[in-house]
Each structure stands twice: as structure tokens, then as C-alpha cells.
Model the fold of this input.
Amino acid sequence: MIEVPIQPSDMTDRVRGALYGMFIADSLAMPSHWYYSGREGVRRAYGTIDGYVKPQTKLPGSIMSKSSTGGGGRGSFKGDVIGNIIFHGKKKFWARGADYHYHHLLDKGENTLEIHLTRRVLDTIAKSKGSFVPTAIRDDYIHFMTTAGTHNDTYCGTCHRMFFANLMSGMDPKECPDNDNHNVDTCDSIITTIPIALMSSDDQKTNADVTTMVGITRKSVTSERYAVLYASMLRDVVLRGMDVREAVSKNAAAIGYNVAANARGQDPVTA
Done:
């Protein structure tokens, strides 16, 4: 097969398309977040989602009602990281038995917290004249999260709650990333690395920068590994024009995962 080089103007359009696609997909998926009843639960709540939809106000079994408001994972409602330090005035939505949907304050078409953080990464890179500057991104992250009114989302993942619990205790921001060995090594760690994956022509630099980006908000070797793998897939598809299936198979093989053998019969709805 003869490979046709992607022209610079086409490359810019492909990168722009990938980023817009991320924003759109997040908004479309937002109402269906974390239904333990799977696809049938989503269908009962919304029917067929074929456009932007406002989420339900309540979600029976919402893990938010069992989560710690003072740190990571499940735990007590006594802590005030949620409500006072970040997510100002929203602690009431985490009350035991309240069962609020994770994003119930968002309107249809709005983005979740993680996409807002990704946009902050993009803005910070732009202000740094196209350079990835970890300290600038960390400072912007802290400012954004601790400033009231910066976003409308209700749910906050464990890594952020642990980070700001550590910051509140007086730790140096560089030392605040943490891990509870359960809720931090998760796929949400990849989201803010997507712009980093698409901004450099050098694979080794990309891998190093993606790893550093993960480490700004969490201490997770597992997340770093998979972020690098995902970056490789993105670069194969967006920057090199590789077929998506081929890119998935190539990068899955790097970790010994057989796509064909493992893809049958799985429910695509995951937490």
C-alpha cells in the first residue's frame, strides 16, 4: 500500500476535528454517565440518545451519595474539600441518600469537569506560545478548581479530591498528586493528555510530556502507561492517517491484548 503524506493544512484540520469530536462526544455521553443498570437503564431514562440531552436530576444508586467529601473514594460526608475548597456550594448534592445525577446541574450540550480541565490545558499551552509548561498547567488547575463559578458540574473524581485534601493540609502542590489504589488508576486520567498527544511531531517527547501531564493531578504509573498507549493510537490515526482498527490492534499488541479474541459479547457501558 502506498502511503500518501498528510499535508500541513490537512493535519491542522484533523487535529482540530479530533478536539472538537472530544468536546461533542463528552456532551453527548454526559447524561448516560455511570448507570449501573447498563444500557437498559439509559434507555429507560432517555429513550434513544441521538442529540444533546439534559441529564435527569436524580440517579438511584448514585455513587456520589456514598463518596467522601473530604478525600478520595467512598467515605464520610463530614469533609469540606467538596463545598468549601472546590465545587463551592455543591456539597449538598453529595448528601447520603440524596442520589443526585453526577451532572444534573449541566444543561444539554454542556461539558463535564474533565473536558473543562482539558480546555484549560489548551488555553495554557496557547498562552505559553505552544509549549507544554507543567508548572503553568498546575497553577491554572489549582486556580480554576478553587475559584467559585468556573464550571457547573457536580461530580468530582477521587484524584481531584485527594489532590485538594493534600493541598489543604499544607503540602507543596508538586507533592499533592495521590492514589487510593482503586479510583485513581482510571481512564479519566487520559482526557487532559489528548491535546499533549497531538501537539508534537516527536514521539519520544510526546510520551514524556503525556506522562508528566498525568502526574500533575494523580500519582499513577498505571495511568501513565495507558496514556502513552492512547497517545500512540491517536497519533497513528490523526497524524499518520492509519485506519482506526489497525491502530487499535497495533497498540493492543504492545501490551499483549488480542482485540479479536476479547471484543465479543462485551457491554460497552462501563464506569
Notes: The chain has one domain: 14-46+54-261. The mean pLDDT is 91. The longest helix spans residues 8-29. The radius of gyration is 19 Å.
